Amino acid sequence: MTTMKSPEGPSPALFFQTINAHMRTAALKSAIELDVFSAIAEGHGSPQALAQRCKGSERGLRMLGDYLTVGGFLNKHGDEYRLTPDSELFLTTTSPAYLGPVLDFMLSYPLVEGFKQLTGAVRKGGTVVGDEGTLAPEHPEWVTFARSMVPLMKGPAEWIANWVRQEAPGTRKVLDVAAGHGTFGIEIAQKIPEAEVTAQDWPNVLTVARENAQTAGITKRFYELPGSAFDVEFEKDYDVILLTNFLHHFDVPTCDTFLKKVHGSLKPGGYVITLEFIPNEDRISPASMAEFCLIMLATTPAGDAYVFSEYDRMFRHAGFGESLMQDVPASNERVIITKK
Amino acid sequence: MTTMKSPEGPSPALFFQTINAHMRTAALKSAIELDVFSAIAEGHGSPQALAQRCKGSERGLRMLGDYLTVGGFLNKHGDEYRLTPDSELFLTTTSPAYLGPVLDFMLSYPLVEGFKQLTGAVRKGGTVVGDEGTLAPEHPEWVTFARSMVPLMKGPAEWIANWVRQEAPGTRKVLDVAAGHGTFGIEIAQKIPEAEVTAQDWPNVLTVARENAQTAGITKRFYELPGSAFDVEFEKDYDVILLTNFLHHFDVPTCDTFLKKVHGSLKPGGYVITLEFIPNEDRISPASMAEFCLIMLATTPAGDAYVFSEYDRMFRHAGFGESLMQDVPASNERVIITKK
Question: Do A6 and B330 touch (CB under 8 A)?
């Protein structure tokens, strides 16, 4: 990606790529806002045709198109742009895997502002955006999250539901902690017709999960538990408790205490299924999971990208035995399965 | 850099890397603001030692350190961070090649704001930040530029001065158009003791060039020409006219007209030396030069990363003959030499 000369000698190339990296974010955001990828899929490949279809300028679309080509999102043939297979699948609005909506969360104010004030967060050791960052009660961010992240969570949710059907086919009661969009519990309810799902989250977020349960046709087996996961009472006989993208927001003592509550709410033989960004023990690989720690620093008071040994210790501390970690295909997260 | 599974199949990895790319910019900016690289160079390798030296939190510096390691700026040995050779050379304050100051320009308001409003720029076909973007008369941006970009321009300035000394040793009068920091003219004055340099720029910017000429000890051969390059009168007998990072800001008709003025101000046999971001004719390679077009879209009304054939045509249109392009080692720019 660099054109700096003297590849054997020192080079400021990485410095410049990194300082200018914010431009990549802006370019992709603009392309999605202008629906450039769908336009190309429809055959509007030239800057002129794109300008007309996307209500932009020919000059602007040529420059954006070239930049996106360099960035790997398009191919260029003469003066015409064409989609890569990944752009066609993930970035055209008619694709079922369209990722456009996740921008609403991934470039939302708390995230962008958190990184704007990253130096302050490094100094303090936690977010400096509000007292609790995105963890403030009923933060509207989580409604955005619930509405926008479904396309991304579909794959891991299917993987987890398949695992439950295969390994714990007798599952009847599922608790979906901080359910958000509700997708994880809903997938299980769809795969196991006898299973009932309780979705716990803030009341404002649960409206989204409820809509999704209606769409999925599982309303009769869908229950709501509104409130904070730390405050509301859990029933005592769950077969499966789902902790998806939840524990990373909190410090270790908070996780320890919460996992004791989870332990007390599971049937003997029941499972906790944890979906998380879990880097290797070196904390610097794999890249996408290791880098997640900085999002926690910028946007939460004390969250982290915990490594497996840390999660394992938290679960044991709460009374569980062995935990097992598995990669989730086509995802940048991992699953920990912990049996009571 | 990706950990997404099924490398043969479709992957949203590039999408996520790109949407999150703004975090890379923020992390490097914070590391420079906190002087993390100098601290490591001094032997403060652990998060604890870094926290003390950089007046931050241990947690924050561990997370930032891991992120920078993933990003290629550090190595990690156990819990200690070490510098890469490039980080040591370009990112420690005691290094003569320290690049920290260029952040003031590269992350200045007009640039960051321009990219925040990139969608508007694609629609309009030019910047939507103010009427003229960074080209407004006496825009303070150019003082920032002049003060911050010297470390970056030192290499190309030396290359150009060496070329002039070898190929045009009889050079006596040099005009440095939009001189900024003045480094390009000053280097020639230092390498050719008989050469006099006239630095043209806005009066507020020329104060920076004047300071640099004093530091270089060439004040007696340093003249100032305050005002817009388009409006002020040029003398008629220059041996060399320097057009460094200037033409890319303007549209072709403006460049055409300006180059006629340049042609009229050169002695027969004199040279125009143009330093620019010049992608190949495909406009999508090399990456760093091709991507420059988007900066012009976001921050200027009509600038561009022109390809060589466009520059060649502009020069011929102004009365020049053949132009020759050369790569500048260890730079992401190229030089065009045009003889009158």
Answer: yes
